[in-house]
Amino acid sequence: MEPPAKHEEEDEENGPRPPFAATVSRVAVAQICLTVGYAAAEPAALCSLADVAARFVQTLARSGASIAAAHGRTDANLLDLVRAMEDLSLPRGFAGAFNPTTPLLRSSILRELMAFVRSVEEIPFPRPIRRESVRARVSPSFGQMGREPPFGHVPRWLPCFPEAWERSRREGEGGGDRREGEGKREMAKGVRLLGEGERVLLAGRERVCFRLEYCGGSCGERKKKRVGEEAEERCGKRR
Amino acid sequence: MNSSSGEGRHDDDSALAEFLASLMDYTPTIPDELVEHYLSRSGFHCPDLRLTRLVAVAAQKFISEVASDALQHCKARQAAPVKDKSKQPKDKRLVLTMEDLSKALREYGVNLKHQEYFADSPSTGMEPSSREE
């Protein structure tokens, strides 16, 4: 849901921008208010109602997930959802609330939802929302890549180790476990083609030298020299 | 009697199945992407799109009910006899205000309080003689 630039930009006039989801829910709630009969809305009232809508969805979801977990399931189903909706509607009341043994699929809440869908006109959201693909970021596991983990204690469902690490390990062992027969990688003039699932690791960087300085006092000057000398010595050693 | 109740049950189940199938054609005002975002944030995992649409429809119904209750409050306030005719609003536009919204949400157990105004300090707006410095 979040756009690529997740950082909230500081606007001099209006302050930091609200999250993308809050803005979308505000637009959806404004559309619902229009269909109900409102011509306009105060900004604070619209923001509050959008926040309430978001909290309603989250409460319903949390309740449904905990009911599913209580039954030993990770995936929620329709029965969990209907029970969550009944729990949420209990303070206000619904038909059949007095009888806890009413079958969930015959709940009056479902019937009211069906009547609502039949009566209300369909008003879709004005613009399509870009879906952020989270799957692309997940690295494939050993099992998905069809490879065996290098160590016996590593399970196959864990993501693969970085290729650069595996390569350095193989070079250190003196070519103990060569996989160049795969034909996926070439090393020619420093150019490497990435194999499937391989991540780009940063190449060797230039050496960086720091000079740490304290400010103020004769003691500080002595310290300055000492610290500076130490830093230079370290740099010198590395060079 | 058993057969009639059995038939009734069958009708209910088929009506529910038809409703869930029709949800795939119906587009709720609250978009699927937004609902999926909040569902995944709350730990609700379900690959079935029909349940996502059901949650969206439930949220839409809730907001419609709250908004229509607030509308009733707004209309009641406008229909009430106005004491001072100069204060009568010239336009009959229905505007969603915090006052109507807080009255409507109170019935649903949501306490919404809104500051009328914000002041710099507790003594802002008081007479200079009454201020203690």
Automatic annotation (TrEMBL), chain A:
Signal peptide interval: none
Gene Ontology molecular function, alphabetical: protein heterodimerization activity
Subcellular location as annotated: Nucleus
Keywords: Nucleus, Transcription, Transcription regulation
GO cellular-component term (any): transcription factor TFIID complex
InterPro entries, per the entry: BTP, Histone-fold, TAF8
The name this protein goes by in its record: Transcription initiation factor TFIID subunit 8
Organism: Elaeis guineensis var. tenera (Oil palm)
